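Section: Multi-chain targets

For targets with more than one molecule, the full set of components is provided together so that the structure can be written out for the assembly as a whole rather than chain by chain. Components appear in the order listed by the source. The example entry contains two components.
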Amino acid sequence: MKVYGTSVSGNCYKIKLLLHLLKIPYEWIETDTRKGETKTQEFLLKNPVGKVPLLELDSGEFLSESNAILYFLAKDTEFFPNDLLIQSRILQWMFFEQYSHEPYIAVNRWLIQFQNKKDDPKIQGNHAKGLDALRIMNDHLSANKFFGSQRPSISDISLFAYTHVAEEGHFPLSGFPNLSSWVERIREIPDFVPIY
Amino acid sequence: MKVYGTSVSGNCYKIKLLLHLLKIPYEWIETDTRKGETKTQEFLLKNPVGKVPLLELDSGEFLSESNAILYFLAKDTEFFPNDLLIQSRILQWMFFEQYSHEPYIAVNRWLIQFQNKKDDPKIQGNHAKGLDALRIMNDHLSANKFFGSQRPSISDISLFAYTHVAEEGHFPLSGFPNLSSWVERIREIPDFVPIY
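Its structure, encoded as tokens over all components, is:
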């Protein structure tokens, strides 16, 4: 299978990380959003939403949305256990990631680290909401080792992608000790690969 | 089971609609975000994210995030067919809904219809992005009757919730004929219930 992705993107890194953890071979096709490569006519035929990551199956079919791709790859593996309530909680945290976490933590990292827009007026409001997300995660980890399941699942991979580089968007994890420990637990999973 | 929800919320309506389509009995506990009822100490113990809808199982356990609740209710039913690629496409559209649709279409409806904030500076930017989402959906429907599957699934229920009332946020569907036809197809599903 092929993965179209921007290497520095956390959403794209989710797919790379899970493919390595599952030892699935793949071809990475660097597609840089910063160069407009997801908005070309050719790419829009593959994904009309104009975003990466995008998975191309050997059949030629395409699948988009990072967390839907994680589901596709993880179903029937240890990263998506076969229990309805656990599966639903895993998805709960993945929808939390896309609605209440990524739009603030990933976007501020993007503006500050990759767009050199440290004075963008959106940053301050995003910062407050990003802190809310990190606090909710940190509180959850006071009684749980992982998100959604008792062992690492695709919700952890989803949340790890932007949380472990949150400092690049000026969200230091030093005030969230449970999150810092969880980041280390994820790094210890066999076959872990870093984003950079 | 119990559903905590704000009746006028599309996210909450998703759950009500699916429960009716599946003929599952439930108790609705009106919990109005506009009155701060999702931010009380008592409610935050049930859902630390402070949002509705929230599902309470007979076991006393809670599940949040509208689309995760749809998955929990629909798995092993006709609204989530047992085919990995179809399931993944259904989730793809549901993540699209939460990331690229709801934050613009639902938020403008909320500001205009329920908060009387017609001059909020966010509305204009949201409007352009909401139109993008509706255009992508309308284009998809030029070759498909539904989203994710060849028959109605939870991705349709998810996308229907705010699309069919998009006009309340000043997104008329008149320019999207495929969307208008799809809205009618959803309304024809047996046991359909309206939002109001």
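The interface with chain A takes residues 48-49, 57, 61, 63-69, 71-72, 75, 84-85, 87-89, 91-92, 94-96, 98-100, 102-103, 136, 139-140 of chain B (CB under 8 Å).
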